[in-house]
Amino acid sequence: MHSLRAKYDLLILHKATRTVAVLRANPTQLPSVEVSNHLRPALAVTESALSTLGIQVLVLSWHARLDKAYLAIVELLSSPETLPVKLRFLEEHEFASWLDADTLALFSDAHGPTVARLNPYAQVGWIDTFQTLYWHAEMTEIRQLNCGNRFSLFRFSSEARQYWFKGVGDPNTHEFALTKLLAQYAPERTAPTELFIDDWNAWISKEVVGVPLREVHDIEVWSHALEDLASIQIATQDHLRQFQQAGARSLRNLDILRCLPELMEESRVAMEAQTSSRAPRLSDGDLRELSMQITTLLNRFEDLQIPNRLIHCDLGSGNVLMGNNGATFLDWAESYIGAPVISAELLLASAECLEPRCVTRLRENYVARLHPDLSEINRQVVVSIMPVLGPLATAVIGWRHNQRVQRRDRFWPILRSLMRRIQCSIAEEPPGVSRFTTGAPQDIRMDHHA
């Protein structure tokens, strides 16, 4: 069983003196903190350092070590005078004799030019450089939320206002270009951007005041959010080529159909590996039938000739804030071009507080707003297919990602659940609505529109 807490040794760097903080009682030991495994490492380490050591730090990088605690390389942001009595600084010649070679290399990297080029957010003093070159104002109340390879996210205050800094690198480098396009074409529905820094692949946004949509129980507020989502998709519809060149990936019906055989084979392997009896295992025959039904539904949806739009595929994790001026949609790294209703369905997946009939009404209102020229019958067909497209898109995205990792089996429980959801959604065909054409599923058709 995995522990709910993790231990991090802290290599606390002081830029001005090129020193490291160690335990006063044992100067050959780094200070450490224990944090919750449920929090992102950067957030957990910075908050624990503040609460247990009384110092403010910025995580530059963190590293897993064999048979040891994790190691977090952090920069001291507090004044050196605030260092607790139990810690003291050592100069490089004092700790070089006992610090292991890997940690010493990380210390040198944090001060060297190579890391500044490969991962600027892992270099000690980078936040001072940012402030000197680009911000030119005092920054206080820095609260780091995340960091990684060429990536950093933190909130700060400046001149009585709150801002967010976000710098991105692989695999989300494209989010920078996408955010610039959204600021141009849909500024009312995205976080107001104060500054873009091309050399750093970073931007500063003003903090959006609002409540996460998933915490709202009012169906009218949800309806407004879906209308605002549709407004983004309408505002960007003539610029899809730009968004695709910027890094929005394709999730068109044809893409889904092309990978469907491999996705269903992965589902078969995942079902065979199921050991729990709490949920039914889909048989090979069930999966073959499900594959034919999905193909028919996608071709039925294609017959409606609904243009592809920009879609946001990470809307269930607090990335929609509701304020006085409507919805703000954050974090567009998971941007795709595909059936617009996928975004709406993924958003509605977090509407657990609403009754099913309310969710159906929300789907109807969204489709009417986005596609006013559709006949009432075709609108109902779209609404009936939406509950299938949401989990199907999630399965395709997860399967694609899973091809790049070693432990494919970690995705299998999610994949099994998604396949069962798709099967249930297909079985629950609304009365008076025929989603399926008669006869056998049709062949895959080419996608002729945007």
The main β sheet shows up as: 6 strands, mixed
Q: Please identify the structural class as seen in this structure.
A: alpha+beta
Radius of gyration: 25 Å
Quote the distance from N terminus to C terminus.
Answer: 48 Å
Return the average pLDDT rounded to an integer: 91
CATH topology of the largest domain: Aminoglycoside 3'-phosphotransferase, Chain: A, domain 2
Number of helices: 14
Note down, in words, how this protein is organized:
There is one protein chain. With 450 residues, the chain is of the alpha+beta class. It folds into 3 domains: 5-122, Alpha-Beta Complex (Nucleoside Triphosphate Pyrophosphohydrolase); 126-206, 2-Layer Sandwich (Phosphorylase Kinase, domain 1); 213-427, Alpha-Beta Complex (Aminoglycoside 3'-phosphotransferase, Chain: A, domain 2). It contains 14 helices and 17 strands. Strands 1, 2, 3, 4, 5 and 6 form a 6-stranded mixed β-sheet that branches. A 5-stranded antiparallel β-sheet has the order 7-8-9-11-10. A 3-stranded antiparallel β-sheet has the order 12-15-16, covered by helices on one side. β7 (140-148) and β8 form a beta hairpin. The two termini are 48 Å apart. Residues 438-450 have low confidence and may be disordered.
Give the tags:
3 domains; Nucleoside Triphosphate Pyrophosphohydrolase; 6-stranded mixed beta sheet; Aminoglycoside 3'-phosphotransferase, Chain: A, domain 2; globular; disordered C terminus; Phosphorylase Kinase, domain 1; 450 residues; 21% strand; 5-stranded antiparallel beta sheet; alpha+beta
